[in-house]
Every structure is written in C-alpha cells, then in structure tokens.
Design a protein that fits this description.
Elements (H helix, E strand, L loop, with lengths): L1 H30 L9 E7 L2 E16 L2 E16 L2 E15 L2 E6 L8 E7 L2 E4 L1
Parallel strand pairs: 1-2, 2-3, 3-4, 4-5, 4-6, 5-7
C-alpha cells in the first residue's frame, strides 16, 4: 500500500512538472527568442513578430509562423522554417527555406552569379530579388 502511495505521488509530480515545462516552452515560443551576438547571429522563434536587426556577415534563423524580419546589412546564411514568414535583407549568400508560404526578399549577393545559393523544401516558398 505504501508503494502505491509513493508511486501515485511520483506520477502526480511528474505530470505537474511536464505540464509546467510545456507551459513555459509555449510562453517562450509566443514571446520569441531574439539574440544578437556582436551583430553575427539572429534567432527568432514564435508567431507574429515584426523585428529589425543589423547583421554584418552573420547568420539569421527564423522559426515559427507569420514573422516579419528586416535585416539591415549582410548575412552569410538565412534559415527559415515554418509558415508565412517574411525576411527582408540587403545582402545574403545562402538561403534555406522549409515549410510553406515563406518568402525571402534580397537586394544582392556576394556570389559570382549575384544570386544567393538557394535550397527550398515545401510549398509556396520563394526567394525574390528586390
């Protein structure tokens, strides 16, 4: 009987911890995670963010949905995953997009062709020169 009580208490604690963890992850995702490290890294996660950053040859990552990210300067690489994200950037060398209906708008690239190297997986994703 004592073992059953202990097992029940442990189960309740585990469920409560799991629920608290999932709620904290959800809150973090809704607020987004934005980081800059010496203008070399930007990471945005969540839904509905409208943000502007400056990069100087760094990396930008966007995860989630309906985010709009404007990057002044240049990026070596942009990774976009999710749905309905838009990224505006002056200069980029490589773009990777996964998901659906994401768009990256760029002005120029340092590659020989003047166009970034692009990898697209999903439906309705596009890269557009402005």
């Amino acid at each position: 009987m004592k073992n059953i009580k202990i097992a029940g208490i442990l189960a309740i604690l585990l469920l409560a911890t799991g629920t608290a963890f999932s709620q904290s992850r959800k809150t973090e995702s809704e607020k987004g995670v934005e980081k800059t490290d010496n203008n070399k890294m930007v990471h945005v996660e969540g839904v509905g963010h409208k943000l502007t950053y400056t990069l100087n040859g760094g990396v930008a990552e966007v995860e989630g949905g309906d985010n709009t990210l404007t990057i002044k300067g240049s990026a070596k690489k942009i990774d976009v995953s999710g749905t309905g994200n838009k990224v505006y950037i002056d200069k980029v060398d490589k773009i990777t997009i996964e998901g659906g209906d994401n768009t990256v708008y760029y002005r120029t690239s340092d590659t020989k062709s003047g166009k970034p190297d692009v990898s697209i997986t999903g439906v309705g994703n596009k890269v557009v020169k402005q």
